[in-house]
Amino acid sequence: MTRPAATRAVLLLLALLCAGVGCSDSTPPPPDARAPDAGSDATGPCAALCTLARIAGEPSGGHADGDAKTARFGSMVGLAGDATWVYVADRANALLRRVRRADGEVETIAGALRQRGPDRSPRDSSAAEARFAELGPLALLGDKLFVGDGSSLRVVDLGAPDRHVSAVRDAFNIVWGTFALRGLSGRGDVLYIGTVEEIFRFDVSAAGALPQRVAGDASNASGARDGSLASARFGEIRGIALGADASTLYVIERCAVRLVDFTAQTVSTLVGQLSDCSAERRDGLDDEVRFFDLRAISASSDDVLFVADVTSVDRARLSREQAELGVIRRIERTSNGVRVSTAAGVVPSDQALTGDADGVASRARLVRPAALWSSGAAADEVLIGTPSALRRLWPARDEVETLCGRLDEDGLLEPGPLLAGSADEGTFVALRGRGELGRIDDQQRYATLAAYDAREFDLLGASGIARVGDAIFVSGLRGVMRRDIASKTSEPLFADVVLQSGGMLLADNKLHWLHRTLLLGAPTPLIAVIDAQGGSQQRLEALGLARIYGLARVAKDYYAADGTVLARLSDGKRIVDEIAGKRDEPGCADGPASSARFSSARALASDGQGRLFIGDIGCNAVRVYDLASREVSTLVGKAGDGELRVGPLDSARLAAPSYLWWDAARGVLLIADPIAGVVLEVTR
């Protein structure tokens, strides 16, 4: 069952859970209006008996400030900098951070750890109190750091004592609606903003100024097209970079680099293809060049471009992780035309090349490069943001090194929904980031069972897993995949009844039904009951819920996690009872159901003995709801302390307990934590 040696080692953590039976005292504490926040250092039942222990591997990602070797990042999606600092948008942790270029020291400059989920919302305030929703591109203009945050443009005043964060308000959102900001680049007092299909110019020094569309067809017509600034169209902008003299703007789409020439008032294709992207990556001159999947761009002070391009290979032969290895390509205009060459990175072949690796540029490995920043001339340095480390390319030395963070060699790539098998089957887990179904055996070894295959099924962003008999069902972005354990075959199912947003699955093995709950995409969240054998379906409307993020069934009733509330859907009734928490009042308070609060309840599991386990990622904790006493308590974790730690449960910490599964045969709770990149097992 062991995976090839070059593949990432799986991380399996073992924790001890007080599971009701055998605990010295399971009586809930008396109601107290001053109930502590979730994860406060516990003195409750079994606190001294329950322990979280790591038995293999190291956490991936995570969050930690400090020196270059101990600092940890969740995922880098934006870079900007000056002579002293590199500013980093850490999306997974919802933090703005900066790295001192001289020694790699890392500090957080704004935001609060992991304020994400259904109830996430940006907040303007001082750096310590500010909140970010979906961090993206960055641009530094003087002492103002501009931040793309979903569809909003926000600015951090680095010169203010409290580094105040504020939104560039309504005028922007009116102009580009809900389009996400894909790129920021500027100089002096001028900031250029790239949305999905348009380019805007914003004079940041002019009081009351509005953004002005400077390129892109406003008719919403589809397809990329060169032409004048007003008539040209962009297919899907993925990044922008201002040229050295500020008269040109470079724009990347999936397989082309576009040139916006403000002097000539035109948009043209500099190099690459606007459509019919090639299945291979090719260096060369002008029309010889092919890109596969461009992710980021930067421009040096001498107008040489660097772009991050994931490798072009036959994905059917490789794991998702291998197919996400990227290269950094150099683009320069010469007297003979536009020349493209590979500056760093290696393309995987049939060999099992996985994981990051520093060293000689042509042999370095870069997993999912997502952000670039050139600090000077093309020969100086190019900084590369990979998910868990800030890397540095020295073109003159032909070398790649890690400035800070940890190379992403260990851990799981966004572990998602999971379930326990029999004693000899281990634990099944879907990896959201890698897009595959795998299994962890009793020796903590990981093996892939079904990998991403865009031609048949897409497990990226897998949100649900269930078992009926000898078949494992996994819901991905575009449907449900069935994996037969005995025959070791996989096939796509139910593509017509699962929306593009996917859904969680719950199995009824006696009736051979799958219960699916939509995460997004429906005006009213619903539960669809699907025949796992025949494919027929019924619909149970979940009236009154905003979204359903976790689902469990106890007897004939369904229980749903809806961000800030725990709800019950009585069988056969079109009524939703909100049994704990309060709508639009996030919090992490334990206590009686009426006063308890949830911040971002995302996962549910039932132990079959009257307790519901709730993964509350906003509180960095697993909470417990007792159906008999109607009390909410905290099992493990502490709000605001999302650094993964093992040890006794009262001191153990979780990052984002996003998926839960109760293993009734062993009496243990399984937790998938995609931020930390681990699977945890909580036992008595």
**Structural class determined from secondary elements:** mainly beta
Oligomer: single chain
State Rg: 25 Å
Share in β-strands:
35-45%
Largest beta-sheet details: 6 strands, mixed
Tally of alpha and pi helices = 2
For the secondary structure, the number of strands is 55
Shape: globular
Helix content: under 10%
The average pLDDT is 80
Instruction: Compute the separation of the termini in Å.
Output: 28 Å
Strand order of the largest sheet: 52-2-1-55-54-53
Would you identify the regions where 5 or more consecutive residues have pLDDT less than 50? 1-49, 52-58, 115-119, 171-178, 313-321
Write the layout of secondary structure elements.
Elements: E1 12-16, E2 51-54, E3 76-81, E4 85-90, E5 95-100, E6 106-111, E7 135-141, E8 144-149, E9 152-157, E10 165-168, H1 170-176, E11 183-187, E12 190-194, E13 199-203, E14 212-215, E15 227-228, E16 239-242, E17 248-252, E18 256-261, E19 266-272, E20 284-285, E21 294-299, E22 305-310, H2 320-323, E23 325-334, E24 337-344, E25 359-360, E26 366-367, E27 371-374, E28 382-386, E29 389-394, E30 399-405, E31 415-420, E32 427-431, E33 436-440, E34 446-450, E35 464-468, E36 471-475, E37 480-484, E38 489-493, E39 503-508, E40 513-518, E41 526-531, E42 537-541, E43 550-554, E44 557-561, E45 565-569, E46 576-581, E47 591-592, E48 601-606, E49 611-616, E50 621-626, E51 631-637, E52 647-648, E53 659-663, E54 668-673, E55 678-683
Parallel strand pairs: 1-55
Antiparallel strand pairs: 1-2, 2-52, 3-4, 4-5, 5-6, 7-8, 8-9, 9-10, 11-12, 12-13, 13-14, 15-19, 16-17, 17-18, 18-19, 20-24, 21-22, 22-23, 23-24, 23-26, 25-30, 27-28, 28-29, 29-30, 31-32, 32-33, 33-34, 35-36, 36-37, 37-38, 39-40, 40-41, 41-42, 43-44, 44-45, 45-46, 47-51, 48-49, 49-50, 50-51, ...
